[in-house]
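Weekly structure sync - notes
Attendees: PM, LS, DV (DV joined late)
Agenda: review two folding runs queued last week.

Item 1: First target. Sequence and structure tokens pasted below for the record.
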Amino acid sequence: MNKSLLIMLVIFASIFTTTGYAQEFEIKGKITDKIDKTPLESATVYVQTLKDSTLITYTISDKNGSFELAGRTEFKEVNLFVTFNGFKTHQQKITLDKSVITLPEISMELASDELDAVQITAIRAPITVKKDTLEFNADSFKTRPDATVEDLIKKLPGVEVDSDGKIKVNGKEVNKILVNGKPFFGNDPNIATKNLTKDIVDKIQVTTTKSESEEFTGKKGTSEEQTINIELKEDQNKGFFGRATISGGTDERYAMSGIGNYFNDKQRVSVLASKNNINSSGFSFDEVYDMMGNAGGGISWSDNGSFSVGGLSFGGGQGITTSSNVGASFVDEYEDKTEILADYFFSRADSENESRVERENILPDGSFFTNSRSTSTSLNDSHRATAELQFKIDSTFKIVVAPSFRFTEGENFSSLNEESLDDDGTLQNRGDSQNKTDSERRNFGSNIDVIKKFGSKGSYVSLNLNNSIINNTSENFLNTTNEIFGTTPTTETRDQLTDIDSKENQLSASVEYRIPLKEKLFLDLNYHFSNRRERNEKEVYDFDNTTNQYDDFNQTLSSDLKVNFLTHTPKIGINYEGKKLYLSFNTGLLFSELKNEEFIQNTSVKSSFSDISISSYMRYRIKQGMSVSLNYNTNSQAPRAQQLQPVANVSNPLNIVVGNPNLNREFNHRFYANFNNYDFKSKSGFFVWFSATLTNDKIVPISTTDENRIRTTTYTNVDGIVRGSGGVSYSKTIKRDSSSVRFRVGLYNNYNKEFNFSNGVKFSTKRNALSPSVRMTYNYRELLEIEPRYSVSLNSIQYSLENLDNETYQSHTVGLKTTTFWPKSIVFGNDLRYTYNTNVAPGFERGALFWNMSLGVKILKDKGTIKLTAYDLLDQNINTRRSITADYIQDSQSTVLQRYFMLGFTYKLSKIGGKKEGGMQFL
């Protein structure tokens, strides 16, 4: 049924995109500087309708100044425009009397006075290339009247937005969203893109993500991530706007949220609040798919199903979460060039979960099985405050101070029932445990950047200081009963109190001095210092039946560990920053020292290492929209205190963990390469990337399982761990006067080669996951949008153990999303997703059809929306997952949201640029 449905949709879309009286056309030409006839690369060429200046299509000139502009329209005459930064706009009328039109050479004149500058501003290109920045004119991309910034971004060439709101530009992930050059609620992209409306946006700018030092000094960025800056219209940058939603439904489901924003040129104040019990962040105000809870709820196959807002995580894991959160953000810039950014968040997450797990544990001479059921509840409160103060002393000197503070306290309770059986079904042991923990965590951090530029040739010195102080305290009550069967049955019980006081202080400092050697060629001198100090005090007390108190000190399980990891890294590097080629190679020596002392167990270990440190990067821009980049670097990672503590963790009596104080640091070699090409002529993009990491002295577990199937795990270092991943994607947009189709095809692969130890035997595992996917989005006149998609994950694992066969399993996902905006004021949406998993254990559901439906009616002059939502309409939501690791194969299910219906009302209010809309103020 699902295959037939997809075929019908493709045929349906093909009919829409091939019918009508539109004609195809192609316009060719060349663009040069009128004075010296120099070809102009990256000039924007586009055509519009004569009647209402609607954009038909556009392209970018190549390095020879040549362009080929292809499109399809029903009009016989169009206006052609050519724009290039600093030149007068060229305009001419074109008669489409033949399929291919070759124009005489177009010679561009320099903009010589203010009137020319006004003309350039008045006639704006849909896309402009400015060095490393792509700039999109928001008004050139047609959307429905009430569209959000996310709707606008989806229309931009080379840009993809997935169902979770994650944005990629030419295959590179966007990790930062700015509004007028400033962060918006801690850089959380969804808050900005889903709540700002398209009508107040002037332009969208996309550039490589840069550090504070790179931004101020003009040094080229080496990040493979992108930043999007949303520039608001000048006449829209004063006023306020906001939205509020209240919803109630069956099964006592509810959701309430609101967000308000005040703009006054460079000053911005934003506040938000939310409360719901449907696993939702609460800050998406899409008329169709928001307030539906975590649609992944088991079918996204994520490890925890949690969500985050402004850097704060909610949900904390699987299950159902009731969340409450409040936040405020403030941005301003003063006359003395001082800028301040500050925000505060409070969150509360109340979660509950039940899970069932069946695991096959792998041994060198066979395997055994573990079945478990667990329940958990948690209540966690979190406060987070951050600020950033920027002092621009003058055009050459800048200081940035960014303090942060977070306080979290929680109450967590869990119970676990677990049993182990041999491969013939004989019961070996059974354990029951209850675990209650009260905890507090305080985290203070500060980051200081001091940057000074010298002259005009790119010389500068920068200093960075970073400090993090973390203090964790917890009180844990553990009660366990462990039954051992067999020839000599035994029963062991524990009733213990564990007090933990953990402190971590991490300090790092780096200084960089750049010396210009020639134009675009620089010598960089760099020194980096870091020191991480940990103190982990763990006191375990057994319950004394005589005193009825936890006052019997258990020295065997107690620990007082002090860890110090110190590094010094002097480096020297050469950097070439050309227009097309950027080349950077920095090398030095990494001196590190790892020292740990255990005062109760009376052990002390000290190790020193000398490694070559390399940081290299190459990016070559072949032509506009096409580039290749390579990256190779090395780094080290110290073990954590829990991996070093030489005492047993018996919170799970059937799986005991003991640290190893003799662990070394890990040393990594990392390689990354990518190639991307976006062709503006064909509106198609191709992206391929590859990443590999080789780790020596990798920290891996050593497990020993006794005859009663009780496992004890510690850690050791091994060489030769390899992790690789890669992917390729292709997208193409076919645009007509009234419709558009975007195809996206992708292939992703992940490979891991690891070594493990079990009962004294070292063995290797090779895991591979191949994930092809295809997705199509069809849009007709902003009235209908259809989005079918399919993906499959092909997983395999190979063991070097002769007694184990290779394992394979698959996970299929077929999806269909439809949205209609007709009749006027009515929005109807459906989101269907069918998943199927092979090879799961008996008793676990393999497949399910997950269907969300929403019907919205706009009232009060489109300022209000009444919406009826059906979540999991067929009541088939499940959370079956299969996991394969080096030493076990596991199937699991846990609590998920089930079917509910909800009725809600959303009201939006704005007064921007002197124009007031709406009739009430809620913030």
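Item 2: Second target, run right after the first with the same settings.
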Amino acid sequence: MLITALIYLLAAVLAVPLAKRIGLGSVLGYLIAGVIIGPHALHLVGDQTEVMHFAEFGVVMMLFLIGLELRPDRLWAMRRPILGLGGLQVVVTCALLAGGLLLVSDLAWQTALAIGLALALSSTAIVLQSLTERGLLKSPAGNNAFAVLLFQDIAVIPILALLPLLALSSIGGTGADDHGHSLIHDLPTAAKIAVTLATIAGIVIAGRFLAAPVLRYMAETRLREIFTAFTLLLVVAIAALMQVIGLSPALGTFLAGVVLAENEFRHELEVDIEPFKGLLLGLFFITVGASIDFELLIQQPLIIGIAVLALMGIKAAVLGVLAALFKMGRRHGLLFTLALAQGGEFAFVLISAGRSASVFSAEVGSLVTVVVALSMLLSPLLIVLYEYLYSRPDQQACPSSADDNIEPSHDVILAGYGRFGQVVGRLLSAQGYHLTILDHSPSQVEMVRRFGNTVYYGDASRRDLLEAAGAAEAKVLVIAVDEPDKTLAIIATAQQHFPHLKILARAIDRRHTYALMRSGIAGLRRETFDSALNLGVDALKLLGLTDSNASRAGQLFKEHDEQTLKVLSELWGDDKSYGLAVRQRLDDLRQVLLADQKERDAHIDQQSTADHNT
């Protein structure tokens, strides 16, 4: 076990940084690492089936984290792309693939339909990881791709139920289903539906009413490892429950994440799960690369090559038409198309279930597995192609102005032009300073340009883009993006290549503030602090304090909080010391405000006495 773990970890730490450095991305790095150490190359590891079943849990954790970012109202707002776009993609792609197989082979219609259903699904792991890594998941194309993937994950359930109905008597089964029967497998249909609905309702109710007090109880232990253990227990228990009743574990944890999206411990859950998700997803990608049967590829190179191209070509054609029908635009439509034009990890599950249900033979299953794995291997290259086409310095503007050259600034570069950045930009422009404004959201750039503003599309963490924007001569870089990780990436690039730049940044929350303070930038502002403080001062006035007393209390609070930030930033990461310091600083704040109140009361008494004597 230790030797195997050593091989996987060594392959990852060698291949992934190299792939990232040459612009291929981490996903392709993991896949290449798997190919190299797999049984068909260096033969450092053997059969990947059991490891892949374990690594697939990374997909489960990823969907849980995505659920934490989606409030129920936002999920409801996405119902049209989920049902419309996702439903059309699965149905049309399956019909074309199954029809094509019937035309070019002698497969039975049941086998062709089962293969078409399996191949219609895309890779949730590869698509979401690739888009997230490049900051594209929240773009219109990323949102639509996520909607399709979510529908596909839901569609796995009825597809698995359909496979036994497609069994062929001429094909002998391969034994018990690799994934086992659910506990409700033999129940009547009505009972299955009732149990399924009851399980989903139980998850929703428990997440809404029980999760917060239990998580609070765990947090009060002040033992980080216990809170992490409970977080893992929560995800594993939900996944196991869904699997026991025959539903998708990924879908169950996604639902749990959505329910917990408004929970006070959402950020702690996210922080605890993220490292495990990243490691398991990396392991999953390595196992996909290692599972490619190159011996079969050598035996039938022409058939497999044509099959891979046909699969990706048909899926790309369907996705391209859907992108046009749903009016995504050229840029977003291309990204949407290239991101989803591959087979997915759920195809492995359906292939295994199809073989067990005697829908197709082991030989056909092996051939389809190789085709899916190769398409997944090629998929990240399509994202690299998209970046090459649209992320070069001469392609940074929106599609409507793709030929514009960035006008460099000698004064200020502003990264991020949303609600925060626009206030900063208007103030600086009104004072006569020249700004070069960058934003990595194409829709935001397009919208702002409609009002006559000059904003350039691009990722400000790229050295070449900052250089084109005038970073070599500019005086100040203001970072107003709404993603903490992206802010830190921009700071790292600027400090490494343009150390003379004075950097000011927008802080999203307290954790982000600590990271910015440690980065050594010239200054930062918390995006909601001043407005929240002013609202608190207004509340004090309504409660009876005079204008001067309320303003004085707000000023004291601000000064004390700024001092507190410096103290707590040095303790961040040490949970015990941090918790004690938070309570101590809160007590100090009460004492400061109380002492100031007593001082003002004493001053008023003295003034009254003096007036009386006079």
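Discussion on item 2: The chain has 26 helices and six strands.
Action: LS to circulate a short write-up before next sync.
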